[in-house]
Amino acid sequence: MGEEMQMNGYEEGLGAGDEDQVLKWEAGLPNADDLTPLSQSLIPPELALAFSISPDPSRTMLDVNLASQNTLSNLCRQSQPFSSNHLKSLPSFAEDPSHDPLVVEGDENEPESTTNDGSDVRKVRRLDGAEVADSTMQTENCDNNNNDDNSARTLKKPRLVWTPQLHKRFIDVVAHLGIKNSVPKTIMQLMNVEGLTRENVASHLQKYRLYLKRMQGLSNEGPFSSDHLFASTPVLQSFHESGNSGHMPLPMYHRPLLPMPVLGIAHGHGHMTIPVGNPPAPATHHGFESHPYNISREQQQDWSATGRTASAAPSTMICMEETSVPAIQSQISLFIFLSACK
DNA sequence: CGCCTAATAT
DNA sequence: AATATTAGGC
Questions:
Q1: What count of other Cβ atoms lies within 10 Å of the Cβ of residue A283?
Q2: Rounded CA gap, A239 and A216, in Å?
Q3: CA A184 → C1' B6, Å?
Q4: How far is the CA of A88 from the CAs of A31, A47, A56, A207, A230, in angstroms?
Q5: Average pLDDT in chain A
Q6: Residue A340: helix, strand or coil by DSSP?
């Protein structure tokens, strides 16, 4: 190890040797199966919010992914300056002028993040440009990368890409809140993703609702109700009789299994979109562990050990304790969905 | 006002 | 199709 790290002559030009290196490199990469399980979530959103746990610049695999992505798709231009990840913790506006305008200028969502003491609720979010820019604006960038460097201040933020990870987080939060209590602002806060704006969430939520609606329609009129499993959960009713005002604040949607596409993490056309946003901040506690976006499978397994000494119980159970039932359902739904996708 | 949602635009 | 932006209504 270490030998490959020093591929320097690289910029000299592309040669046969490079190809080999690339292949080798690729071989060493985890395959889709390994990458997929990038889940985290569970519990923390609420706690995080409650405790004002703020996001911190933790990043790891994400950057790796990002970097690899850049490497791969970067044939037509220089790589993104994702080195700027560090500054994410500042609300400021001009940390990184290069592609920062997105800062939160247009985002006044949190005017009151305020200045109380100046050190807590930094919902401060901003997307990393790089994250989104890459997969979404790629084409454009390639074509004309000349107009953006000078008009930096008027730059528009790149479109948010709802990566499977992001979507999962979204789903988890919605599950916690219950579809009924899920409104953009709240979701956004619980998701706790830097750079995510209320508008982003609102838009996605709208889409998600449409999706649910479709689902609902289908499940009702479909040949036969195939998912009693979920239907039997305490969830359904809330959906059905919305009249039940103010009772269990934990309503929830019932199985979102169909293709709200975003979940198609799997391998598709070797396209691999894992740009993920900036992970929220977890803040690992003793008994609890919040998982940032970037946890790998190993880490995931870890938690059962970490979260508590009970080793056998399903992670879900452990985390849930009494935190929220919906969370489990969310997990299950996701699982089912993923299975179904195959 | 701020936020939410539906409609519309890109 | 996926997101963003706008328009209206609380």
A1: 18
A2: 9
A3: 14
A4: 29, 22, 8, 28, 40
A5: 46
A6: helix
Nearest CA to A130 out of A91, A183, A74, A182 is that of: A74
A1 CA to C2 C1' in angstroms comes to 41
Most confident stretch, A72-81, A100-109, A165-174: A165-174
Q: Taking 60 as the threshold, does the pLDDT of residue A118 lie above it?
A: no
In terms of pLDDT, which residue wins out, A332 or A210?
A210
Say how far A326 CA is from B9 C1', in Å: 35
How far apart are alpha carbons A302 and A168 in whole angstroms? 20
Alpha-helix runs per DSSP H in A57-197:
61-73, 130-143, 164-177, 184-191
The pLDDT-based confidence of A70 (bands split at 50, 70, 90) is: very low
Single pTM value for the model: 0.44
Q: Which residues of A67-88 are buried (b: 16+ CB within 10 A; e: fewer)?
A: bebbeebeeeeeebebebbeeb
Backbone angles phi, psi at A145, to 5 degrees: -105, 15
> Which residues in chain A, range 262-301, keep a C-beta under 7 Å from any nucleic strand B atom?
none
Q: Which amino acid is at A244?
A: N
Q: Report the nearest residue to nucleotide C2, CA vs C1'.
A: A161
Please name which of A144, A313, A312, A177 lies closest in space to residue A252, comparing C-alpha atoms: A177
Q: Tokens 């996701």 identify what position? A: A334
Long-range Cβ pairs for the range A112-119 (8 Å, 24+): none
Residues 88-117 of A with CB under 7 A from strand B: 109, 111
The residue lying closest to nucleotide B4, measuring its CA against C1', is A183
